[in-house]
Amino acid sequence: MRDTTLAGAVIGRDTLLKQAALVLGGTALIAMAAQVSVPMFPVPMTLQTLAILIVGLTFGARLGAVTLLAYLAQGAMGLPVFANGMNGAALLGPTAGFLVGFVAMAWLAGLAVEKGLARGPVTTALCCLAISAALYLPGLVWLATFTGLETAVTVGALPFLAGDAVKAVIAALLVWGGWKAVRARRG
Fold first, then answer.
1. Running DSSP on this structure, what letter comes out for residue 84?
2. CA 111, CA 105: separation in Å to the nearest integer?
3. 10 Å Cβ neighbour count for 95?
4. Would residue 1 count as lying in a domain?
């Protein structure tokens, strides 16, 4: 990580220990966000996407994706890290497409930062909105195998659009605020 990522700017030279600490901290943040849930069926509304965008924007593409792979591995090992305390069983259920898509979501958010596409609050918010929209592709394709495409869109996308847009903007503003604080500290 260089200063292209917020984590790199804050922690300085990255070591394996620092990266491991970031991954563990990131998975804990995502797991906690998953528990803030509005029960809906078959896909609950959570704060996971907010946390995933923050992780990707802060850690960068590779470490963001590794963090999400570690998160999925924790769930697969039986830890109750997914929405509503679910574990590896969720990786076979109707939400699995979204869970797998989370890896790409973090990677794309990190890539947007690394490529300089997400630098200000507006460009970061636009990137987050596009990345949030892209999550629907794997999520709805998988969900449609359980419910059919029309129902998948009706229950797996439409109720979430406004909330995902708000979470995308909040993630952008939080990370942009983090950059402002780092720059202010450096003088």
1. G
2. 10
3. 23
4. no
| pLDDT tens-digit map of 118-150 | 989 999 999 999 999 999 999 999 999 999 999
Q: Which of 81, 126, 89 is nearest to 108 (CA)?
A: 126
Residue 146 lies in a domain: yes
Angle at 91 between CA 107 and CA 147, to 5 degrees: 105
**Cis amide prior to 42 (ω within 30 degrees):** yes
Helix, strand, or coil (residue 37): strand
The pTM of the full predicted model, rounded to 2 decimals, is 0.95
pLDDT tens-digit map of 24-39: 999 999 999 999 988 8
Number of domains in the chain: 1
- SS3 of 9-31: the string is HHHCCCCHHHHHHHHHHHHHHHH
As a whole number of angstroms, the distance between CA 15 and CA 20 comes to: 9
Task: Please give the helix or strand (H or E) that residue 45 lies within, else none.
Answer: strand 45-46
